[in-house]
Amino acid sequence: MSGRVLVGVKRVIDYAVKIRVKPDNTGVVTDGVKHSMNPFCEIAVEEAVKLKEKKLIKEVVAVSCGPQQSQETIRTALAMGADRGIHVDVSGKDYENLGPLQVSKILAALAKQEDAQLILLGKQAIDDDCNQTGQMTAALLDWPQGTFASEVSLEGDKINLVREIDGGLEHIKINTPAVITADLRLNTPRYATLPNIMKAKKKKIATVKPADLGVDVTSRLEVLKVEEPPQRQAGMKVETVEDLVVKLKEAGRV
Amino acid sequence: MMNMNRLIVSRTFRIGQRLLGCHTRRAGQEELRLQQRRSIKTHCRHLAYSKKAFFVLQAEVFPYPEIGNDEVEEIKQLVAPVEKFFSDDVDSAKIDREATIPLETLQGLKDLGLFGIMIPEEYGGLGLSHTIYARLNEIIALDGSIAVTLAAHQAIGLKGILIAGNEAQKKKYLPKLSSGEHIAAFCLTEPGSGSDAASIQTRATLSEDGKHYLINGSKIWISNGGMADIMTVFARTEVEVDGVKKDKISAFIVERAFGGIASGKPEDKLGIRGSNTCELSFDNVPVPVENVIGEIGGGFKIAMNILNSGRFSMGSSCAGMIKKLIELTSEYAATRKQFNKSLSEFGMIQEKFAMMALNAFVMESMAYLTAGMMDRPGVPDCSLEAAMVKVFSSEGGWICVSEALQVLGGLGYTKNYPFERFVRDCRILPIFEVLIHKCLNSEGSLEPIPAVPAEAGYTLDRTGKDGVVHPSLEDSAKKLEQNISLFGSTVESLLYRYGKTIVDEQLVLKRVADVLIHMYAMTAVLSRASRSISIGLRNHDHEVLLANTFCNDAFFKNNYWMVQLQKHSPENNDANIKKIAKQVLENRAYICSHPLERTY
User: Fold this and answer.
1) Residue B338: left if φ>0, alpha if ψ -120 to 50, beta else—which one?
2) Which of A76, A193, A201 lies nearest to residue B112, judging by beta carbons?
3) Domain Electron transfer flavoprotein alpha/beta-subunit N-terminal: where (chain A) (predicted)?
4) Who's near B302: CB < 8 A, 6+ residues apart?
5) Most CB atoms closer than 10 Å: which of B68, B149, B284, B351?
6) Which of A36-45, B202-211, B251-260, B375-384 has the lowest mean pLDDT?
């Protein structure tokens, strides 16, 4: 199977940063905070580039939805080996309200437009932890989906997948075209080496607007409040099991 | 011979041109016009060298160097993988403990492209600017051994080929050096020639068929000596000058593959233990004549140029390291409690943090100012400025790591924490490449010094001119002006007093150099802070605070040093110091009678 692979990459707050809630409780502080590519997206990009290196696919196209800065994320994907990028320009209020439903509509439209054989995504983003985009995209396109993939191999025009599920590992075989979402153990992403970053400067990034794809990005969700998780209270030590039961009853837990 | 035919004096007068005057504010608007001041031509009779004016960029110090948006983006992209590599894949403790850099780590560095940062793309390198090189060094400096290995390879090891090599040499050697397939080393120092580089004894004699030079001699303290494939070797060669045979130093590209080269065992060092340092001996090593860098006899100048060009990044390396130390130590200071208060509430601890922040600020400012100047097309060489950055950073860095360790007390002293390693790694900074400190001190030496011009009443005229410094920094700017003017007259009187023998007066020159360095530092911070305010960088108020604090401190220090330089200054203890030293050194021991001895 040869063809085009679309890889979705999301720009999120870097995993090492200490998140702080905005004083007005409408969201988290993003100004001046370090951002980078979502770790699961990195794994997706790595998988796509590996497939290309094995000559199983022809072209890797990195896609990101967001403001101008999303182009940095696409550039990182290009430095890792993607061939070109598509930046779907969404900014301001639209960006703040952008969620899996809108993104999956965009990806579905792009997949049709670019005649993609495969869509590779990270299983979830570390900022909202939705874990929905891959599934929704597959549904919109009516394509098979292989989510939480920890192993992917292409066999003719079918894909063998190993999924990490609660009970263990599930082996499935799906048809192409398909949507795959990457889990942690799928691979170890390569570093974008400096020479590759320099080469990536020459690769193209096209910009489109959601409207061009016929997608309406208005959100059906409204964020009411964002607050910090409750402070973890100190625990209590008890001497005997009876004491424990008494304490639990007091706390109304039993 | 040494090219230090620059005189500070004339230069300092030119500094006057840059004077940071008062900005005449437009009605209510903070709009700062950061344009160049019109240079005030000072009539200076020291034209012995008419080369670049001191502070090189007569015009380039203000405004602070600006890089394009594209470059800013590029830097962000380049920095990310390097930071990740150093935080995830570099085990500094292990490198220090085992006194070697693991092959996987070395390969990782090569893959990242860090072996050819400034080599042009056509030869396989990244072709990046001095500014980006300095920025990357902020991260690389987090591991001292790696930093020295990379610097020995590209900042000096292969620099000769880069700046003075011919096309054939570049094409032949640079590609493999860029990828790291070959590693380079810089071979100048010998057992008998350290600071006095011109006295090296290694000899290169032309073979009978005129096709090879045979190199004989030995070198010590060669970084990367044990693993280098390509070495830049300096040796004496016989040349004919006006019919007279003389010995002059030449530079050669020597491949280990030529044969006859033996490396000694790696030195067991206090710090930068992962960096390979060893002796090299050359026994009739045949070097083809095509491998001479530049011209026969031109080696010393090439050596100086090589060393000068690599120096500037020490500022950003030290700044990067200090910034990291601040993070590590402040966590401790905020949580550790004694006497029912957290450490951060104690004055002396606060002083240490302020000092680290100030030092990092100054080093950054100086480093990027210098790098920015070096990146500008057609700007004359900035070796003096780079040297000043090096001296300030190496000394400041050493003090800061020591203070950082102090904050952690006993914990800092153990190997469980990285502070002791930083202290050990930093101790090398004031030691290597020190040739420059001496050079800095002996500026003005070789040219016959013409009579000092009667510019004693030199005035720094800048009232009413467009200022280049923001009003909130005005006071500091005035202090700098005062320093400069006093400096001018101080140096004048020194030259009157000593004439040419001033080259031998190290204690005098040391103070002159220190004042100079501090003035350059003040200029750098004022330039940077002005830019930060005018473009509204985040936390620019803090920058103003840092700039003003530093300038205030430096102002008084400068004044004190200059007072000590005046004739018969009671603040100057030099004569006594020399006497003490003489008596101690004559006896090679401390000579006082023991306080418990009796004579009755």
Assistant:
1) beta
2) A193
3) 25-217
4) B160, B163, B164, B251, B293, B294
5) B149
6) B375-384
A160 in B contact zone (CB under 8 Å) = no
Question: Which among A198, A161, A208 has a CA at the least distance from the CA of A180?
Answer: A161
Q: Look up residue B527 and give its amino acid.
A: S
How far is it, in rounded angstroms, from Cα B167 to Cα B161?
9
DSSP letter string over A15-83? TTSPP-B-TTSSSB--TT--EEE-HHHHHHHHHHHHHHHTTS-SEEEEEEEESTTHHHHHHHHHHHT-S
E-strand stretches of chain A: 4-8, 11-13, 35-37, 59-66, 84-89, 116-122, 145-155, 158-165, 168-175, 178-182, 205-208
Cis-peptide into B63, omega within 30 deg: yes
| CB-nearest partner of A194 from B73, B76, B113 | B113
The letter for the amino acid at B19 is L
Q: Whole-angstrom Cα distance, residue A69 to residue A89?
A: 10
Positions in chain A whose pLDDT score sits under 50: 1
Over the stretch B570-595, which tens digit does the pLDDT of each residue have? 888 899 999 999 999 999 999 999 99
Test B84 with A191 for CB contact under 8 angstroms.
yes
Q: Interface pTM (ipTM) of the complex? A: 0.75
User: Distances in Å between the alpha carbon of B190 and those of A171, B148, B255, B279, B293?
Assistant: 67, 19, 19, 9, 20
Measure the CA–CA gap between A174 and A160, rounded to whole angstroms. 7
For chain B, say whether A194 makes contact (Cβ under 8 Å): yes
Nearest CA in chain A to B83: A191
- Find tokens 């891959």 and name the residue: A134
Q: B112 CB near a chain A CB, below 8 Å?
A: yes
Q: Which of B138, B433, B443, B492 is catalytic?
A: B433
User: Mind listing the pLDDT tens digit for each residue in B441-462?
Assistant: 444 332 222 222 222 222 222 3
**Interface contact B111-A191, CB threshold 8 A:** yes
Q: Which residue of A has its CA nearest to B89?
A: A191
CA nearest B44: which of B74, B10, B5, B19?
B10
- Which chain B residue lies closest to A14 (C-alpha atoms)? B80
The answer to whether residues B56 and B385 touch, using CB atoms and an 8 Å cutoff, is: yes
B286-308: burial string, b at 16+ Cβ within 10 Å, e else: ebeeebbbbebbbbbbbbbbbbb
CB < 8 Å from A in window 55-74 of B: 73-74
Q: How many other CB atoms sit within 10 Å of the CB of residue B363?
A: 28
Asked if the model's pLDDT at residue B6 lies above 90, the reply is no
A72 touches chain B (CB under 8 A): yes
Residues 6+ apart with CB under 8 A from A96: A27
Chain-chain contact of A191 with B113 (C-beta, under 8 angstroms): no
pLDDT of residue B462: 31
Is B77 in contact with A191 (Cβ distance < 8 A)?
A: no
Write the pLDDT tens digit of every residue in B401-446: 999 999 999 999 999 999 999 999 999 888 876 544 444 444 433 2
Of B70, B77, B88, B126, which to mutate for an interface test with A (greatest number of A Cβ within 10 Å)? Answer: B77
| B104 noted as active-site residue | no
* Whole-angstrom distance, CA of residue A201 vs CA of residue B127: 14
Give A37's contacts in chain B (Cβ within 8 Å). none
Question: Is B82 an 8 Å CB contact of chain A?
Answer: yes
Binary contact (A194, B108; C-beta < 8 A): no
Across the A/B interface, how many CB contacts are shorter than 8 Å? 41
Sorted by where each starts, the structural domains of chain A and their CATH numbers stand as 4-251 (3.40.50.620)
Total H helices, total E strands in chain A = 7, 11
